[in-house]
Every structure is written in C-alpha cells, then in structure tokens.
UniProtKB/TrEMBL annotation:
Protein name: Carboxymuconolactone decarboxylase-like domain-containing protein
Highest taxon of the lineage: Bacteria
Segments forming a coiled coil: none
Pfam families: CMD (PF02627)
Domain Carboxymuconolactone decarboxylase-like, residue spans: 4-67
Organism per entry: Chroococcidiopsis cubana SAG 39.79
Entries under Gene3D superfamilies matching the protein: AhpD-like
GO MF terms held by the record: peroxiredoxin activity
Amino acid sequence: MTNPGELDPLIRELIYIAVSVTNGCEYCIASHTSAAYAKGMSDNMFGELMVIVATANTTNRLANGYRIPVDERFKT
C-alpha cells in the first residue's frame, strides 16, 4: 500500500513486521525491518516491538485455549 493515509509510514512498517513475525514470513520480516530502519526505527523500538508481539501472541493463545469469553464492555 503506497497511498497516504492516517498512519505514519514507520507505524505501517511496524505493523507489517508484527504480522510477518506472527506469520513466520522470513522474507517479509527482513524487507519490512529494513524499511522500518530506513524510516527511523531504532534498535530499542525494534526490541520493544518484539516484546509486544511476543506478549500479544502468548496472551492470545492462552485466551483462545481457555476460551475466555469477551467482556460485555468490549463488545460493539
């Protein structure tokens, strides 16, 4: 997607990295990580992103495994 939008280009690359890591796409991880560094990502930002991805994947799997129902306040 090259059209401008509401999300900053670096944020877009971070989202691509997060999804690529979750999906295990080596090519996508490499290309979007390179693009993110070119757009200003620091090593610390990358590390924080990896922590968020790992935490989200872990808690998502646990919630699915335990079949935790969605709180009424979160439903639309």
